[in-house]
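Subject: design request, 120 residues
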């Protein structure tokens, strides 16, 4: 399986998500970040302008990225997902995590959303 990180910005590589103590009343940790690497509408790499991670106390996680990217030359909405041999990755608790459970949609106008699901 070819491994390509969709999330590679240095600003996120410095973020550490710490596990919650057993007696904590918080059920999740949310981290807002500046950007993440995504596909544009033609399959080229670019940066999204909004990203956040949510990691629950049981270790499951969600990475979401949104932004305006170059739309597809076809003028139609396009989708990319984990069936392409590529994985989506993030760093949680100092550990790099990757998943093939992801989906990115780029609308005909270039609005993009990426969702990556991490399960323990």
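Subject: RE: design request

Done. Sequence follows.
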């Amino acid at each position: 399986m070819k491994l390509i990180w969709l999330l590679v910005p240095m600003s996120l590589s410095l973020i550490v998500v710490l596990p919650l103590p057993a007696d904590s009343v918080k059920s999740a940790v949310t981290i807002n970040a500046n950007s993440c690497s995504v596909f544009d509408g033609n399959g080229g790499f670019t940066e999204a302008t909004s990203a956040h991670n949510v990691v629950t106390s049981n270790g499951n996680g969600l990475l979401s990225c949104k932004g305006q990217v170059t739309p597809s030359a076809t003028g139609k909405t396009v989708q990319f997902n984990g069936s392409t041999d590529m994985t989506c990755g993030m760093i949680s608790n100092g550990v790099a995590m990757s998943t093939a459970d992801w989906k990115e949609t780029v609308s005909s106008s270039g609005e993009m959303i990426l969702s990556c699901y991490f399960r323990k």
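The two ends are 20 Å apart (CA to CA).
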